[in-house]
Amino acid sequence: MKTLGHFLQTGDWKGEKHVPVIHAPEKTKAGEAFELKISIGDEIKHPNTLEHHISWFKVFFHPEGSKFPVEIGNFKFTAHGEGDIYDEPVVSTNVKLNKSGTIYALSYCNIHGLWENFKEIVVE
Amino acid sequence: MKTLGHFLQTGDWKGEKHVPVIHAPEKTKAGEAFELKISIGDEIKHPNTLEHHISWFKVFFHPEGSKFPVEIGNFKFTAHGEGDIYDEPVVSTNVKLNKSGTIYALSYCNIHGLWENFKEIVVE
Amino acid sequence: MKTLGHFLQTGDWKGEKHVPVIHAPEKTKAGEAFELKISIGDEIKHPNTLEHHISWFKVFFHPEGSKFPVEIGNFKFTAHGEGDIYDEPVVSTNVKLNKSGTIYALSYCNIHGLWENFKEIVVE
Amino acid sequence: MKTLGHFLQTGDWKGEKHVPVIHAPEKTKAGEAFELKISIGDEIKHPNTLEHHISWFKVFFHPEGSKFPVEIGNFKFTAHGEGDIYDEPVVSTNVKLNKSGTIYALSYCNIHGLWENFKEIVVE
Ligand SMILES: [Fe+3]
Ligand SMILES: [Fe+3]
Ligand SMILES: [Fe+3]
Ligand SMILES: [Fe+3]
C-alpha cells in the first residue's frame, strides 16, 4: 500500500546532509524547561538558495506507553536569498516534559523530500 | 527501529473520523489548474474545541517514478473556540501538475496524532 | 516609530495583483458554517515561480466591540515549481461565527512583502 | 479605514508580557551567520495552557532603503498541555544579512491578539 511513511528517509547525519540532528540532554527533570535544538548542517552544509533549501522542521514527542505522538513545534525557514537574507536550518526552543519518551524531528528539503531522526530522553 | 512513519495511521474515512478525505478529479490536464479539496468530517464530525481539534493538513504530491514527494501546501486551522469562532478542517486550493502521480494528505489531531490518506491522479 | 503596520500595503485588487480578495457572504447565521475563500489572481495573475510567488495567507476575524482579532487560519502555498508542481494562491475553508465583525486577510509575496484586505460580515 | 495594522500592539516587554523580545547583536558582519533569538517571558511569564498561550512568532527583516520587509521565519509553538508537554515561546535561529536594517518580531496570543517589536542591526 502507498503510504507517506515510505518517504520518510533517515541516515547518519555525519554523512547525510539532510538528516536533522537533535540536541537535547539525556536526562531532564519533570516540568523543568530544557533547551531543545534541531539543526541541519552540523557536519555538512546543505545549500540555501531559492531553488534548493531546507524548508522546515517539525518536532514531535512520543511519551513512552502512549499511542500517539504530540507535536511540539513547527519551525519554518522562510528567507533563502530574498533581499540577500538567509535563514539557516537551525532552531532552538524550550520544552517541558513530564514523562520519558522519544523526540522525533522531521525535516523537508524542497528537492530531496522528507527526512527524520529521533532521540530518547529520560524524565526524572 | 523507531520511526515517525510508524505513527502515521490510516483507515476508512467513512468509519474513522480522523482520516483526511482527498477530493480531486481522477484525471487532469498537464499545466491546468484543478481544485484539490481535503476535508475531515464528511461522514463523521470530529470535535472542534480548544482541548481537542484537527490542527492542520499537509499535502504532498509524488510524481510517479520520482524518488521524493513535493509538499504542495500546509493548511493550519487556528480558531477552535477563541471568541466563539471556529475554523473547520476543510480546505480547497488550486493545483497544477505536469505528471501523473499520487496525492498524499497528512492530518494532525492534537489528541490522536497523525493520520494519512492518498489518491492517485492521472495527468494527460 | 518603526512599526510592522507601516508595511501592510493595500489597494484595489482589480488593479493591484497582490491584494487578497475575500469571498464571503454579506450575512451569515450564528453557529452555521459558511465557505470563506481567499484568493489572489481573480483579475491579474501573480507570478508563481521559485524566485517570485505568493507564499501564504493569514486570516483573522475581529468581532465588533472586541479589543483583539482572532486568527482563523494560516494557509501556506509550498509548491512553486518543484517537480513542475504549482500551488496557486487560492484557498477556501469553512468558518463558524457567532457575532458580526470584520474578516481580515493578510498575504505575503516573497519579493513585494505584506498586503491586506478586509470585509465586514453580519451574523444574524 | 479598517486595517490589520491597527491591531498590532506594542509596549515595553519589561512590563507587558505579550511583547516579543528580540535578542540580536548591535552589529554583525555581512554574510556571516549570527544567532537571532525571540522570546516572550524574559521578565513576566505568559500562561501556557490550551485555553491561553502564545501561538507563534513571525520574524521579518527590513533592509534600510528597501520598500518591502522580507520574512525570515515562522515559528509555531504547538504543545500547550497535550500529553503534559509544553513548548515555551522562545526560539533561536541563525541568520545571515548583507545590509543594515531592522528586525521585526510579530507574536500572537490566542486571547490577546497580535504584538510586535523591532530592533535595528548594523551590518559591516
Ligand atoms: Fe536537498
Ligand atoms: Fe481526535
Ligand atoms: Fe509579487
Ligand atoms: Fe495573552
UniProtKB/TrEMBL annotation, chains A, B, C, D:
<dbReference type="InterPro" id="IPR051233">
    <property type="entry name" value="Desulfoferrodoxin_SOR"/>
</dbReference>
<feature type="domain" description="Desulfoferrodoxin ferrous iron-binding">
    <location>
        <begin position="11"/>
        <end position="117"/>
    </location>
</feature>
<dbReference type="GO" id="GO:0005506">
    <property type="term" value="F:iron ion binding"/>
</dbReference>
<dbReference type="Pfam" id="PF01880">
    <property type="entry name" value="Desulfoferrodox"/>
</dbReference>
<keyword id="KW-0408">Iron</keyword>
<dbReference type="InterPro" id="IPR036073">
    <property type="entry name" value="Desulfoferrodoxin_Fe-bd_dom_sf"/>
</dbReference>
<protein>
    <submittedName>
        <fullName>Superoxide reductase</fullName>
    </submittedName>
</protein>
<keyword id="KW-0249">Electron transport</keyword>
<keyword id="KW-0479">Metal-binding</keyword>
<keyword id="KW-0813">Transport</keyword>
<dbReference type="GO" id="GO:0016491">
    <property type="term" value="F:oxidoreductase activity"/>
</dbReference>
<dbReference type="InterPro" id="IPR002742">
    <property type="entry name" value="Desulfoferrodoxin_Fe-bd_dom"/>
</dbReference>
<comment type="similarity">
    <text>Belongs to the desulfoferrodoxin family.</text>
</comment>
